[in-house]
Amino acid sequence: PRQVAAKKEVGKLHAAGRTKTDGPLELPFWDDFSAPYGLYPDTLKWTDSYSVWVNDGMAVNQPTIKVATFDGLDSLGLAYSPTEILVTGYTDQLISRPVNLGAASVLPAGRSGVYLSFFYQWQGNGEAPDRDDYLELEFKDSTETWVSMLTIFPKQTFDRNIFYDTILHVMGDAFFHDHFQFRFRS
Q1: Cα(95)–Cα(184) distance, integer angstroms
Q2: Cβ atoms of residues 34 and 65 within 8 Å
Q3: Mean per-residue pLDDT for 139-148?
Q4: Given a cut of 80, is residue 184 above it in pLDDT?
Q5: Helix, strand, coil proportions of the chain in percent (round to 5)?
Q6: Alpha-carbon distance 37 to 108, whole Å?
Q7: Rounded CA separation 87/12 (Å)
Q8: What distance in Å separates the CA atoms of residue 166 and residue 156, rounded to the nearest whole number?
């Protein structure tokens, strides 16, 4: 059922022209994934993120209205490499639209107060992550290079019913520019 719905939803998003914006977003950036755009993240906040599934059924005790699920399936609900069960590498990603962290938006004196916070849950109502799976958070610097900021690997101590909160200080002049982006990859 998800595969058929996904095909229809992608068509709706593109047909409605939801991917067009007038420049970088301003702070604060916040999303509880409640925007009514079907199975995908709000294209006014996220870009090229159709592999992530927005829903309210895969998580347990979720802290927001809906969640973005990194389920290892492509935008049509299919496995990335269906004939290779032991394939490794990146699958799902959630990429922010550009955010204005330039000097006109975030004064140098205010940079110490810029943080990115999020919640994550291992497994929930889905399949448990494999030993080598992980969630990576990257920031795009002023040279358009993605820089790994945090990598979270599964641990036996993770509780499948708990959302873990994380807060990361945005530090370094390289990230304070007009088209800052962040992305999560699994």
Answers
A1: 7
A2: yes
A3: 97
A4: yes
A5: 10, 25, 60
A6: 36
A7: 32
A8: 18
The single residue listed with the structure tokens 């593109």 is: 14
Tokens of 10: 């992608």
- Phi/psi at 154 (5° precision): -65, 145
Instruction: Tell me the Cα Rg of the chain.
Output: 17
Determine the straight-line distance between the first and last CA of the chain, rounded to whole angstroms: 24
CB-based contacts of 148-153 (< 8 A; 24+ apart in sequence): 152/120
Q: What SS3 string covers 122-147?
A: CCCCCCCCCCCCCEEEEEECCCCCEE
Tokens of 120: 């994550």
How far is residue 86 from each of residues 77, 129, 144, 173, measured CA to CA in Å? 18, 13, 32, 40
Tokens 């999560």 map to which residue? 184
**Are 29 and 46 spatial neighbours (Cβ–Cβ below 8 Å)?**
no
Q: What is the pLDDT of residues 95-126, one digit of tens each?
A: 999 999 999 999 999 999 999 999 999 888 88
Identify each DSSP E strand in the chain by its residue range.
46-47, 53-55, 67-69, 93-96, 115-120, 135-140, 146-152, 164-169, 181-185
